[in-house]
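To whoever is covering the structure queue this week,

Two jobs came back overnight. Logging them here so there's a record in the thread.

Job A:
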Amino acid sequence: MRLFVQIPCLNEEATLPLVLATIPREVEGIEEVEILVVDDGSTDRTLEVARNLGVRHFVRHTRNMGLARSFRDGVDDALAHGADIVVNTDGDNQYPQERIGDLVQPILRGEADMVVGDRQTATIAHFSPFKKAMQRVGSGVVNRAAGTRLPDAASGFRAYSRAALMRLNIVTKFSYCMETIIQAGNKRMRVASVAIVTNPKTRESRLFRNVWHHMIKSGQAIVRSYLMYKPHTVFATLGIVLGAVGAVPFARFLYYWSIGESGGHIQSLIFGAAFLVGALECLALLVIADLQRSNRALLEETLERIREIQYRDRASLGAAEAGPELDTMAGQLGVEGSLRASLSSTSQTP
């Protein structure tokens, strides 16, 4: 059993040594523990520090590509090197790396495909009351969309099984956190949670400018992911509401018509017709979304099979040809990249 601990970094030369020092090199049930640093366009000595501290696996972006792309490229490299479990932590030392052993245990016991570290946000001192409230609301929305019961859906301290990563597809450009939970829940994966206590804050977040920016971006990711898997709920509900509202003016017109006073109530027909047209448009969008969902399911199954072949072949050839240290540039194989682009296009709102 091979565990890869993945560390996305953007100018983390100061905190990376703290992260690396606390990653356990031996974990119960794991034969090998490897560390993978994803350098997302750092302009400081992050890579040099990692190499000096014995890190052998790297993914390097020549410019900043964002957290979602860093996660995706890191996972690709880890799976290519035979990872059975991938743990994601942060380069700012926010998470307690010494709890990695606890984080992977539900996967090793066969109880979960994905494990999320619960930061217990209500107890974090530097979180404002508003931010704590928004964390609860956001987690509740994600759980409703995914059918899960996670207390901290935004946590980036996570463990994934190899099988789970084969089935997950990241199409958002902001953050993978919400999207992977919604995908996992709707694909009937087992998602568990482990309570953790975060380390003291070392710097401000570089993922978003402020709380409102984070809320808007997270909201977009949630809506987009929700529409991928439950378009019926959105468009059917909206269509029923518009149809019901549109039926009221028609009923009003028919009432006056029945008593012989319909002459001055033509506006009711116009008003009702506008809402009924909206209801019909929702029905059309529902049909299109359903077709796209079917197409997406076929593309995901194809991509999963390609990954199985790709990673098996690369794992057997990579070590002998590339050496222990692989510096992977941003950019994927042509076939997989084309399928990812197709998945991204089918996930757009109709």
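Job B:
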Amino acid sequence: MPAERLNLLDDLLAKAKRAGAESADAVMVESASLSVAWRMGTLERLERAENADIGLRVFIGKRQACVSSSDRSAMALDTLVERCVAMARAVPEDPFCGLAEPDQLATGAPPDLDTLDPSEPTAEALIDQVRRAEDAARAVPGITNSEGAEAGWGRSHMAVAATNGFRHAWSGSSSSISVAVLAGEGTAMERDTDSSSVVWREDLRAPEDIGHAAAHRAVARLNSRKLRTCKVPVVFDPRNATGLVGTLAGAINGAAIARGTSFLKDRMGKRVLPAGVHMIDDPHRRRGLRSKSRDAEGLANRRRMVIEDGVLTTWFLDLRSARQLGLESTGHASRGTASPPSPSPTNLYIEKGHVTPGEMISDIRQGLYVTELIGFGVNTVTGDYSRGAAGFWIEDGEIAYPVSEITIAGHMSEMFLNLTPANDLVFRYGFDSPTLRIDGMTVAGR
């Protein structure tokens, strides 16, 4: 129960103070999960796991240390406190560490974000979902093999308490289905996937829909061609456009800005996206995959226009990065049990535009529609971008034929300034985006 978890943390904090800590905070996470894997009509894996972890962070002057344990016995917690205090006395000083001041803490009742689905599926229910998803995929003509389908469910209970008066407990749940299949034969095979992840099981897409989508994507990629190197508009489908959202999030993370390791470090208050384009972070979206009513340091959070009308308005800041930069925290602290808080966005998305994906490509004489990105050639320090890709060639405003074994490249400062969003935004991943078009990218092929 929430009260019991918070009381245990209060006792741990009291022990830390008696052992010599000047201030401290503690985190508890209890979780349960169920997962199944199904391939070629056969159950391959059925697992259930339950975990409990507790973490303590103590401060002595400008020194801090964190220790975690999965053993919550009285003797183990005494040892935890001793180790943590001893470590804090030995580590170098950090002038920016420390808890929030009491007057910085969020007040009032937290909003109800509907993050906990109270139902728990049976193993039989998950097996039925993966069976239906894979059966639907394998029934599509052209599908010749399957990497299988997986389904999972999880529930977590979390609590945080600190000597500055912060006490908060909350719970969350998640459910997911995914399937991956192959089309074609021999060296001419193509693979694709589809998935659905939600907070409430009732919001999952139908297993048959997921299976059909994965299969049709794989079949559509058969008989792909190679391209000659060119410079053309590149259109990213929503699954891959979310990666650009994540890249932007990393570049405006306060920790990276404080270290000077972001190509956007000097762009506050300046244009980074085209006029009329907005990027929003919304921690209070009901049933959002990354929703939270407070940040991990007890500060209030809220919906923010991170990029407004193309202009960068804020960094993602926790207390430490804010102190380094001489700013106020934006309420973006997140943490686990074994490390200090760090800044992280919540439900982050690029707002939808005004044209359909079809209208977006209708004026492209030659271009690329990306459905898969490969590799990790993104350097957020320099802004250089280079990824392996596959998808479809666009000719005279129409999807013409599948292409593969290509690389797309550019510099992110220019890429983002030449970005256009379509109107097909759907919230599916936590980081979300509509279809995006970026003009003037280099496509390297033969």
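Note for Job B: The CA atoms of residues 45 and 271 lie 49 Å apart.

Please reply-all if you pick these up so we don't duplicate work.
Q.
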